[in-house]
Design goal:
By secondary structure, the chain is of the alpha/beta class. The protein has 15 helices and 12 strands. Bound molecules: flavin mononucleotide (FMN).
């Protein structure tokens, strides 16, 4: 079975450099991007031998929905760069595996078309708290009507992180960087503020790049979440929580779940790896009923098991899904998820776990705590 590194290599060979750069890179010195993966390597297993069963059950429930695997697809923008069917194919891939797909509001396919392409999928809609509330309201209410099951509010992007290398620096450069077919599709889901959108189009920004960019990076405050609750009945999930304090605020404001995430190292460089802050955040919200998920740097089944052991109920992958999408559309996304599923099951058995409830913190130790006898 190929590993996720093989999928990445294939994507690299297949995709034009400028698309690969947009997908793969991070901000600043890319410290957080690299640490997301490196931090998993600093964690080791303490298995329980002679207690695994042949049969492993990794089904789970998230926000009341049954999922076949505890691994879903994180929202990522501009998926037409990876495959002409973009977000529709990703949704189908997740549906095939009986798991969650979060659609980015910066997707290039209509929300309604994604819903139609995966009628039995568990779809969640991501949004920023846009400068003009009409845009957020439009995205959220269309998603609700189309059958999406939850709203994921990304709260880690008051402005765009510093992109020194190859990627993009700001709105203008971003627009220039995106070329051809990907650019042609634009930001189709920005439809709320009709008058301003018409003005943006008239000014030559016909694909709404600059407009959506400017709308999304709006420095929202916590009160904006209170407003959001008044325009939708769907549960709210807050994505981009990296501290205990912010996790408690998310609970207080009524979030039903949080995603511990540093945006895959694409916003504030210098943040810890998400797996490093997961345990304290999971402890802080214990007993509140708020579910805790994590993303960032998960590249194999061992990483998934470590995240579950340290307090996540569910994990998400961002870039790996894009590698699968670029290889083979929906089937490629499903193959990435199945690879992780297979690796998780094998690692569970080797650790002595037969079901997710067997997984707890005692299975994982930080390398700093291993006593060296040399
Ligand atoms: C190309 C790309 C685009 C992304 N776009 C969004 C987005 O529109 N909204 C969002 O909340 N997160 C976005 N993210 C962050 C992902 O949701 C996720 O947090 C991150 O990719 C997880 O790290 P991983 O790629 O190492 O799995 C994006 C990530 C990538 C790689």
């Amino acid at each position: 079975m190929p590993s996720l590194d093989d999928f990445e290599q294939t994507a690299k060979e297949k995709l034009p450099d400028w698309i690969m750069n947009y997908y793969a890179t991070g901000t600043g010195e890319e410290q957080t991007l690299q640490e997301n993966k490196a931090a998993y390597k600093r964690l080791r297993f303490q298995p329980r031998i002679m207690c695994a069963d042949k049969h492993r059950d990794i089904s789970n429930r998230v926000l009341g929905y049954d999922v076949n695997i505890p691994i879903g697809v994180a929202p990522s923008a501009l998926q037409s760069g990876a495959h002409p069917r973009g977000e529709m194919a990703t949704a189908e891939g997740a549906e095939k595996c009986g798991t969650v797909m979060i659609m980015s509001s910066w997707g290039q396919v209509l929300i309604e078309d994604v819903a139609k392409s995966a009628p039995n999928g568990i779809l969640w809609m991501q949004t920023y708290l846009n400068k003009d509330r009409r845009n957020t309201q439009n995205i959220v209410q269309r998603a609700e009507k189309a059958g999406f099951k939850a709203i994921v509010v990304s709260v880690d992007s008051p402005c765009v992180g510093i992109r020194k290398n190859k990627g993009y620096q700001g709105g203008d450069q971003f627009i220039k960087t995106l070329k051809g077919e990907v650019a042609a599709k634009g930001f189709v889901n920005y439809q709320g503020a009709v008058d301003d959108i018409a003005k943006a189009r008239a000014s030559g920004d016909d694909r709404l790049f600059k407009y959506a960019w400017d709308q999304s990076l709006s420095c929202p405050k916590w009160e904006e979440v209170e407003w959001l609750k008044t325009v939708t009945k769907l549960p709210l999930i807050m994505k981009g929580i990296m501290t205990v304090e912010n996790a408690k605020q998310a609970v207080a404001v009524g979030a039903k779940a949080i995603i511990v995430s540093n945006h895959g190292g694409r916003q504030l460089d210098g943040l810890p790896a998400s797996i490093e802050v997961l345990p304290e955040i999971a402890d802080a919200v214990k007993g509140t009923g708020v579910e805790v998920y994590v993303d960032g740097g998960i590249r194999n089944g061992s990483d998934v098991l470590k995240a579950l052991a340290l307090g996540a109920k569910f994990v998400f992958v961002g870039r790996p899904a894009l590698w699968g999408l670029s290889m083979d559309g929906a089937d490629g996304v499903a193959e990435v998820l199945r690879t992780l599923e297979h690796e998780l099951k094998v690692t569970m058995t080797l650790c002595g776990c037969s079901r997710l409830s067997d997984i707890d913190r005692s299975l994982v130790i930080h390398e700093a705590k291993l006593k060296c006898k040399l």
